[in-house]
Amino acid sequence: MVTDDAGQGGTAAGRDNKTGHQGGAGHSMVQLITPAGERVSHPEYDPWLKDVSDEQLCSLYEDLVVIRRIDKEATALQRQGELGLWPPLLGQEASQVGSVRALRDDDFIFPSYRENGVAYCRGVDLADILRVWRGAASGGWDPYTVNMAIPQIVIGAQTLHATGYAMGIQNDGADSAAIVYFGDGATSEGDVNEAMVFAASFQVPLVFFCQNNHWAISEPVRVQSHTQLVDRGTGFGIPSMRVDGNDVLAVMAATRVALDRARRGGGPTFIEAVTYRMGPHTTADDPTRYRDANELEDWAAKDPIGRVHALLDRKGLFTEEFETGVRTKADAVARELRAGCIGMPDPEPLDVFKHVYSTPNSWLDRQQDHYSRYLATFGDPEVATQEEGAR
């Protein structure tokens, strides 16, 4: 099914048979689950979901619920002073779950700072997801243990990293791929556009995954772009798709199409997942200052969890036992997240010099020596002990 942003049925006239693109007037938005939970058939995308069983659909629902629970728990931890900051993903769960569950273990992920749901599905330790937001580390986890880079705070910079990594995959002759996540606001950054130039020029195996959540902090997307964001990819000669980002199956199908193209040597793909940021940009933001409450209400009716709930109910799969099991799992994850946060040890003063370079560096060693002697003037025995240990 192709729709407009309001979730109403649209026309498929003019769509390219290979890509599902809308000719001339723009790209239609692919939707496979309506907000009411109706599964809509789509001849181009259905084949990419033929292996998704009822059991897997239930598992996707669990992912969505658990991720939202993580988000609420982390927000509460920030409000209670346990985290310095938290970037909520409320409302964007389907975009993250649908895309990450389409990946193979050897595919590499380059996130922004909001892909906490992707990190959970990828197997990142719960405490590690919070580490940077508690101020206990500069990163959070070893990227190569899960093939996912640490959160990128600089808007759009990760697209350049992803393009370079994808060029490496290409040079190695591997059939893996890379995916890079960014928001609608990042499409206005030079880094993103430069990354698309290189990715298109060298036809690298990369998926540009744009979560259009309609707000770049307080700036609405309509101010940033007077055309669909998916057209940005098309402008660089990159095959592009526009999907309902609140529809976990549509997102999964589109991501699988893009990954298949990448593995076959077809180059990059741009996916615009049309979703909505239900909460603030970060916990330091107050969206009521710039956002109409009616807009929030309209998008709440298209909630990504609600529509999968409705679909499972239609199929007779949403039993009391299943609901209890999902709720129990979500609560257990939240408890583990909270315990990991509160029990996280504070970093030592000289830990700031760790993991800067992979090999010894005399320039950094000199800085560490100067800083340790400076700290020693305060008479802190812990600093002296740490310095002695480093030697």
UniProtKB/TrEMBL annotation:
Residues 65-332 form the Dehydrogenase E1 component domain. CDD domains: TPP_E1_PDC_ADC_BCADC (cd02000). Its cofactor is thiamine diphosphate. GO terms for molecular function: magnesium ion binding; oxidoreductase activity, acting on the aldehyde or oxo group of donors, disulfide as acceptor. Coiled coil: none annotated. Keywords: Oxidoreductase, Thiamine pyrophosphate. The keyword Oxidoreductase applies. Residues 1-27 are annotated as: Disordered. It comes from Arthrobacter globiformis (strain ATCC 8010 / DSM 20124 / JCM 1332 / NBRC 12137 / NCIMB 8907 / NRRL B-2979 / 168). This is Branched-chain alpha-keto acid dehydrogenase E1 alpha subunit. One of its GO terms (biological process) is branched-chain amino acid catabolic process. The lineage of its organism: Bacteria, Bacillati, Actinomycetota, Actinomycetes, Micrococcales. InterPro entries: Alpha-ketoacid_DH_E1_comp, DH_E1, PdhA/BkdA, THDP-binding.
